Every structure is written in C-alpha cells, then in structure tokens.
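Researcher: Next sequence.
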Amino acid sequence: MLILVITTVIAANCSHHVDNYQEETPRMVVQKFYNALVNGEISKAAYYLSEKFALDMIELMGGMDRLYQELQLIAFAFGNSSELPLTYDQLMEMTEKEVVVFLIYVLGKDEFDNFRLEILSEEIDGNQAVVEINNFDEVEIHLIKESGKWKIYPDF
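Model: Next structure:
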C-alpha cells in the first residue's frame, strides 16, 4: 500500500511539472538573449545562441586558436577593469558559444547603455522563425530550432 501511495504522489508531481512547462517562443528567446547580453551575462546569453551559428562564426574568424588569441588581447586591454564582466581565467575557459557571445558583447558594449528592445512581430515557419525588433532601427532576428529549442541564428 505504501508503494502505491508513493507512486501516486510521484506521478502526480511529474504530470504537474509537465503541465506547467511552457516552450519558449522565438519572441521569448530574443527577449532573454538581449536581457542577458545587455547585463553582461555571457553564459546565460550563450544558452540562447545557435550552436551552428557559433561554429560557423568561429570557422569564419579563423578557428578557436585565433579567437583565443583575440580574447587574450581583449583581456589584456581591459586588464582588471570592472568593465569586463569576466576574469581572465574565465575568458580562457569559455565554450565556443560563450566566446562568440563575448565578442558580440564587447563589440556592442557601448550601445547597450541606451539599449531599448521593442519586439514588433514574430513569424514562425517550421523550424525557422524571424522576430522583428526595434532598437533605434527595425531589425530582423533569425532563429532556428536546435534539439527542439529555439536558438538565435543571426543572418549577416
């Protein structure tokens, strides 16, 4: 009898969690990505970036060795500055996605002070989506589904 009660409680809790799970929409992913990026939360922003995009960017920029050299220069340039959201050791331990997000962060850092994200529209077509945003200019953010989750795949 005790096993039946325990099994019933576990099953009820599992179904409760499944019912409360809500898939992140492309709109939500864009919002969370930019919120994390603006706040310098590199790992959190990297979660929302496409793995495929990160690997494509690394290849385009000459591979990880070249990117790590760039990271070392960036870390050296910032020194121990509080402007850099990570320590030197953290920079050297980044994943590929984190490296790409960090470069996006460093290159766009000056714009984040006045960053204002307004989501205008969302269009989903199978495993691809486009979210139109307004941040001083109207821009389309492209997303793809990877392992069943929406990920940002910028279209340059």
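Model: The mean pLDDT is 79. The beta strands are 118-125, 128-135, 137-146, 149-152.
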